[in-house]
Predict the structure.
Amino acid sequence: MKSPIPDYLQRVLEKARPFNTGAPASYIDVLAKADTSRSAVAVATVDGSVYSAGDDDVEFSIQSISKPFVYALAIQDQGVDRVLEKVGVEPSGDAFNRLSLEAGTNRPMNPMINAGAMATHALVVSSDATMEQRVDRIVEALSRLAGRQLYVDEEVYAAELKDANRNMGIGYMLKAAGMISCDPQEAVRGYIRQCSINVNVRDLAMMAATLGNGGVHPVSGERIMPQESARQVLSVMTTCGMYNASGEWIATVGVPAKSGVSGGIIGSLPGQLGLAVFSPNLDQRGNSVRGVAMCKQLSRDMGFHMM
Ligand code: DON
């Protein structure tokens, strides 16, 4: 029997189509030129089925959606206690590109803001690894999660690096605060390469489903991360994943999530599924306008809210 799910996802997509206010990220010129008519949605269940609709094979740079997965890698490579010495777990309530160091500890508030993501990136493999070693490890791990080989989009990388003054500034502040031990420029360049890895919504849904499945890949059955790492990552996504819209998101959609400036959003419902949406126009807080509309609809229709 044909599954009704793809037709349902198509309806979700069409319903959200008129919600196309906002604008693509303007501070990275490749993203500013994105085709704003595009949108896509995908759902992957923890038993390995993937359903999708719309521009589901269109690739876009993963951007901040890389952050939870790299956080999981840092925990795997250094242990959670060492990671917690360098990056906190409290929502900052501020924009993602603010420094947001915690009073007293000097740690970036959480791994989902840029400062925290750079400090997290610098912990992957080991504190004295090279940028190439870290990026190779990240590309390999994200590819295993997606179930296919992923690549850094060199055009996106070059475009972001060209205007990376703010992130470079954050990198130097992290070094001054003792939160990274490597060269700050290496940490920022590696972090930008991590953000420039291309994915589509089907890849992201599978990656999110792996988190929702406690770290076991739904298709390969491979344990990609320990259960405790998946729990830590989902906890931080719950409180910090949608930046300064995290509170409103968890009250309305009710799913641990992460957004990125290229217009993607992932959600992971523990024990059930991973979902991913994509559309480039963003709201004031950097979240995809149609993407948020689709997630709200899915949550209402399917009862995804955790409560
Ligand atoms: O650091 C940056 O500005 C980007 N590479 C990633 C930021 C991002 O996706 C924030 N998301 N809303």
Remarks:
- The radius of gyration is 18 Å.
- Residues 131-146 form the longest helix (16 residues).
